[in-house]
Design brief:
The protein has a single domain, classed as NAD(P)-binding Rossmann-like Domain (Rossmann fold), CATH 3.40.50.720. Helices cover 39% and strands 16% of the residues. The strands form four sheets. It has a seven-stranded parallel sheet with strand order 5-4-3-6-11-12-13, with helices on both faces. Strands 1-2 form a two-stranded antiparallel sheet.
């Protein structure tokens, strides 16, 4: 099959197997070029491991610390008339690279919110690893089924209190327009907190603890974002922000839960990057395009893999995690630097369809988006037939 990108809104409905493999290999190259992490983790569980920050976390742990990894995700293999998802091919490539490096890697494909997947993962840890010393929680889903009641919760991206109007970017056409988003109503906030808050992170850690598969000194981390004031109505002060507040509540609860094991729970506030999740948030793609331009000019732009390598290397497994006043690790420190934010803020006021390519890195945004699905990678022949029917080795 000749695979080409087919973009619908903020998603790409195709994925290129060889391109995804190249993307994984490139990320591994970044990590291995920096050497091993002193005192890094050895047995790591990544919940939400197939794309974005979760995939990069698994790569950073495996190839930066020679860690055995277990990954949990919900992805689809190919069908006769369509490709598999990018996360499926990413995992195929990751497991093959791990095997070549002599590293243990096992994956579970299913509903990470379910008790069944938790039980399967715990059984695998007991059988293969005994215990894990690091748990990364990086799930991003629009809905969640509560495992005990079966109730389905759906998240929304809405402001709270009043309608929010601001600039936004059509990431297909490059048109800068204005968007108005109606405020949350009914149980929108509660539903979003139920999906994107900290409850499931807690359920995972409690299940792992009760099963005795958490090592002494275990570390766990979940990811968040704060961003600049221009995005706060739709993010920090919106429904998703309430969910992130609940994530911080869970972090404090987990600190207490893990205290007998001398363990620690962290929230890592990461940089704004092009991911499948961020692409869906109005206003944010325009901000990211402006941010990329400023940070690339300053020489301090990072992608997911550089962020996650820095998390493991310089924060989680160093003696200097550098928490902020709320106890959070701030990997968005370079993004939120005064100089960068001054440039982005000034350009936000003047950006338009006509000057977009001058003040923003729209082409960089688009290429980053396409790379998520395996397109636009150096060394890949996109005119050749792709082998789309691929199996994740550990799934048989």
């Amino acid at each position: 099959m000749i695979v080409t990108p087919k973009i619908r809104g903020f998603i790409c409905t195709t994925a290129h197997p060889e391109g995804c493999a190249r993307h994984v290999a490139d990320q591994i190259g970044v990590v291995t070029s920096r050497g091993l992490v002193a005192g890094g983790p050895k047995k790591v569980l990544v919940i939400g491991s197939s794309t974005g920050y979760g995939l990069s976390s698994r790569i950073a742990a495996a190839f930066g610390s020679n860690a055995a990894t277990i990954g949990v995700f919900f992805e689809k293999p190919s069908e006769p008339d369509r490709t598999g998802t990018a996360g499926w091919y990413n995992t195929v490539a990751f497991e093959k690279e791990a095997a070549a490096a002599g590293l243990y890697a096992r994956s579970f494909n299913g509903d990470a919110y379910s008790d069944a997947i938790k039980d399967e993962v715990i059984a695998a840890i007991k059988a293969d690893l005994g215990q894990v010393d690091c748990v990364i929680y990086s799930l991003a889903s629009p809905r969640r089924t509560e495992p005990k009641t079966g109730e389905v919760f759906k998240s929304v991206l809405k402001p709270i209190g009043e309608t929010y109007t601001n600039k936004t970017l059509n990431t297909t056409t490059g048109a800068v327009t204005e968007i108005s988003i109606e405020p949350a109503a009914g149980d929108d906030i509660a539903q979003t907190v139920a999906v994107m808050g900290g409850e499931d992170w807690e359920l995972w850690m409690k299940a792992l603890l009760e099963a005795g598969v958490l090592a002494d000194g275990v570390k766990t981390a979940a990811y968040s974002y704060i961003g600049p004031s221009m995005t706060w109505p739709i993010y920090k002060n919106g429904t998703i922000g309430r969910a992130k507040e609940d994530l911080e509540r869970a972090q404090q609860a987990l600190d207490e839960l893990l205290a007998p094991l001398h363990g620690k729970a962290w929230i890592s506030v990461n940089k704004a990057l092009v991911t499948q999740a961020s692409s869906a948030i109005p206003v944010v793609p325009l901000y990211i395009s402006l941010l990329y331009k400023a940070m690339k000019a300053a020489g301090n732009h990072e992608d997911c893999i550089e962020q996650m390598d820095r998390l493991f290397r310089d924060r989680l497994y160093s003696n200097t995690p550098q928490p902020d006043e709320a106890g959070r690790i701030r990997l968005d420190d370079w993004e939120m630097g005064e100089g960068i934010q001054k440039i982005v803020g000034e350009r936000w006021e003047t950006v338009s369809t006509e000057n977009l390519t001058e003040v923003a890195d729209f082409s960089g945004y688009q290429s980053s988006f396409l790379r998520l699905f395996g397109f636009g990678l150096q060394g890949v022949d996109y005119t050749a037939d792709s082998e789309v029917d691929q199996k994740v080795p550990s799934l048989g």
